[in-house]
DNA sequence: ATAAAACGAACGAACGTTCGATATTGTGTT
DNA sequence: AACACAATATCGAACGTTCGTTCGTTTTAT
């Protein structure tokens, strides 16, 4: 029904090096170092060091001396890649919308008017599928780019206004798509949630998506894979979450 | 069925000043200032300033000069209350388990053995009620102490080991109680989730609890009260979340 | 007038960033 | 192939600033 993480990676040809190719593609104009091969390699070292250190002590408490040690570069060397500490954070935050635009499925999906609810089951199933597809894609992207998602979530709030703007725009776009698709499901299945309830459900789903990349180590210790989690969420959708209000069993 | 936030406050006699009475009670031994009335008033100013500043820029980026300005105290004056910046954070983190121990309902709740499943509905209902009670109490406490919960969540990970220990112990206690009560529901209602699934559900519930105090302003803008949210979660429980695995509607 | 509380200038440590010196790489000429 | 010379990339000592914290002094309350 919904595709697996392996399928997703295959479909988008997501290799390990593709991350750094894309990252270089997005930021190469800002770099002082012009050789692409060298730049990709050093950017990888710097970003991975940033993820480790900011995961351990937080970006604010991460020192550029820490970063130099962890990435095996010198203090000055790092500055040929990042410009400043703040821009380092900005580069990371900007990467996520860039990847979204390259991977997320556009759903031109004609809006559900009252007229074409004829074949109900079909329409309802398609609305459900559109929601679940979006959930799976987000989940799989966050699996592929866990450190990036983690960083974006943890550091967005406490960054400069410029960075916060990037992060909040990205977040609210996601929230909005989620809301629309939840609303479509509730309309198509004639359960007609109030706008408030649909929003509540959409926010809940986002929390559960975040839970995956925030607590991935815990899930893995319990032998829960990302495919397991995707199925788990799909079942929540297919069962009670978007039903009419309140009649308990 | 489940009590309201107003009932909860009434039952525990939670007034605005009670927060500071309890906070002083927990920490008075460490203070250099001995006059209780003065200390409570100044502690309130310092903590509220800490919440505002760490909410805006994060605790790591909050300066003690910021704190002095925001709380209308001098740099030196603050140190008669907090000892050090790290101890200020520790004092906040320690407060939550202290409040839990004073307010959370102990459920001595005989463990559900196979033998007393006779009156099934009754047992199942009681297991469900125990879970929902715990959820509501957590929700209401987080409503009463939103800044404290917010601070504990955002700053726990990036604190000293001593602080992290307090925060993680508190979190995993909550997680464990949640897990037990979810498992009890699934046993009592003969749906017998796997241990893995019960844990997944318990973690999901915790995410949804956190969502309340992390995004409270958004919920409020949508006119969602804490009682609304409590009912919403209760309905999720009473409907699909803890049902057998997988048969979609 | 004595104790309690608040104050803020001053200190050393550590931070982000710069920049001139050094090392490495790539290219054109023997 | 060997060399030389730019061009490119890396380095880390040094700078100015800001941080958490201290402590001798002043203010307030009894």
Describe this structure in words.
2 copies of one chain form a homodimer. Chain A is an all-alpha fold and 249 residues long. The first copy, chain A, has a domain at 89-242. Helix content of chain A is 72%, strand content 0%. Chain A contains 12 helices and no strands. In chain A, helix 3 (36-57) packs across helix 4 (64-71), helix 7 runs antiparallel to helix 12 and helix 9 crosses helix 10. Mean pLDDT of chain A is 91; it is low at 244-249. The interface between A and B is large, with 36 and 36 residues. Chain B binds a DNA duplex (30 and 30 nucleotides) through residues 32-35, 38, 42, 63-65, 68, 73-80, 84-85.
Keyword list:
homodimer; 249 residues; DNA-binding; mainly alpha
In short, what is this structure?
The structure is a homodimer of 249-residue chains. With 249 residues, chain A is an all-alpha fold. Helix content of chain A is 72%, strand content 0%.
In terms of topology, how is this protein built?
Two copies of one chain form a homodimer.
Chain A: H1 5-12, H2 16-27, H3 36-57, H4 64-71, H5 75-82, H6 85-103, H7 120-144, H8 146-156, H9 161-188, H10 195-214, H11 216-221, H12 226-238
Helix pairs in contact in A: 2-3, 2-6, 3-4, 3-8, 6-8, 6-9, 7-8, 7-9, 7-10, 7-12, 9-10
The structure holds a DNA duplex (30 and 30 nucleotides).
């Amino acid at each position: 029904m919904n595709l697996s993480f392996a399928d997703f990676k295959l479909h988008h040809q997501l290799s390990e090096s593709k991350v750094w190719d894309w990252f270089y593609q997005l930021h190469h104009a800002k770099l002082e170092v012009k050789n692409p091969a060298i730049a990709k390699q050093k950017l990888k070292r710097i970003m991975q060091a940033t993820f480790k250190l900011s995961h351990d002590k937080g970006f604010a408490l991460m020192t550029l001396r820490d970063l130099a040690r962890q990435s095996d570069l010198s203090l000055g060397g790092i500055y040929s890649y990042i410009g400043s500490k703040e821009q380092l954070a900005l580069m990371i935050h900007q990467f996520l919308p860039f990847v979204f635009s390259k991977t997320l499925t556009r759903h031109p999906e004609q809006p559900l008017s009252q007229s074409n609810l004829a074949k109900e089951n079909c329409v309802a199933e398609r609305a459900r599928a559109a929601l679940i597809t979006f959930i799976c894609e987000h989940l799989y992207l966050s699996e592929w780019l866990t450190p990036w998602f983690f960083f974006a979530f943890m550091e967005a709030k406490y960054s400069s206004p410029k960075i916060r703007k990037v992060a909040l725009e990205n977040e609210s776009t996601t929230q909005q798509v989620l809301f629309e698709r939840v609303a479509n499901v509730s309309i198509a299945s004639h359960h007609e949630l109030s706008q408030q309830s649909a929003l509540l459900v959409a926010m809940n789903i986002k929390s559960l998506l975040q839970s995956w990349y925030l607590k991935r180590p815990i899930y893995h210790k319990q032998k829960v894979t990302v495919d397991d989690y995707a199925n788990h969420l799909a079942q929540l959708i297919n069962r009670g979450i978007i039903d009419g209000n309140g009649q308990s069993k």
